Amino acid sequence: MPSEELVAGGGYRHGQKQQQQQQLEIRQVWADNVEREFRLIRAAIERFPYVSMDTEFPGVIHRPTTHPAAMTPAHRYALLKSNVDALHLIQVGLAFAASPSSPPALAFQVNLREFDPRVHRHAPESVRLLAASGIDLAAHRARGVSARAFAALLMSSGLVCNPEVAWVTFHSAYDFAYLVKLLMGRKLPRSLPEFLKYVRVYFGPEVYDVKHMMRFCGGGQLFGGLERVAAALGVRRAAGRCHQAASDSVLTWDTFREMRRLYFAREGSLELCAGVLFGLELDDPKLLVS
To answer: Quick one: which of 150, 156, 166, 212 has the fewest CB in 10 Å?
Structure first.
């Protein structure tokens, strides 16, 4: 159960009346408060085991030589690996909910320190977009959490390697790739099946990619990016700004639960989407069996 500190801090919503009175707070996580914030996360997981996740990173520097639609999942993974291995994670957003139909009760934005655009490779247009969206990279370098410290806290938090936690994402191959790289402490596995095994080990069987779920929603009625899909479903951004990880994780969660209500009401229908990352679908799921 969340501690009194968490309730007093304004980050925990419960009950319809309180939700109407109090906007969800995004808790900013820096090096000077990361231990305290992870204590709150550890306290909250049992009560809020549904986690929506998003990341921000400095774009891509390796691009496909063929049209993405013509690429196989293995080719997409090879391209993803070349980018993730070469680049640094900037932000991780986590939103927590009590059930698949509940609004998010907590949201954390972990600000990482490693990326420096003066010395590290990046896509300039992506970094300009992040800066225009309010991400202060100088503050990240000065006050951010180290990737090593974040990985250690994540491993001991109860968030990963816990089959009781369900994860919700949007077009999340890169998001999971950055977290797998961080948790492994080394470059990504060489093959797609091996990578997906690590995703299963760290994040469990209940991983839902909203971009993949869209394929089962009324024959193409939903398409495009997160903002477009949310707008089509009548979902508004509840907190923060676009292109910041925690705000996007909250919007992802609210989009997921509205999509679930409209298109996956039948018992067991959502299970068809579990464990599949958009763009990295295996033709033979047996390849994931050890």
So the answer is: 156
Domain that holds residue 156: 26-279
**Token pair recorded at residue 197:** 């095994």
Question: For helices 34-44 and 147-156, what crossing angle results, to 10°?
Answer: 20
Beta-carbon neighbour count of residue 143 at 10 Å?
15
* pLDDT (0 to 100) of residue 284: 60
List pLDDT tens digits, range 32-79.
999 999 999 999 999 999 999 999 999 999 999 999 889 999 999 999
Q: Structure tokens of 190?
A: 């060489």
Determine, yes or no, domain membership for 4.
no
CA 48, CA 98: separation in Å to the nearest integer?
Answer: 4
Residue 288 lies in a domain: no
Tens of pLDDT, residue by residue over 104-120, are 999 999 999 999 999 99
CATH number of residue 114's parent domain: 3.30.420.10
Q: Bridge-partner residues for 94, per DSSP?
A: 53, 108
The count of structural domains within the chain is: 1
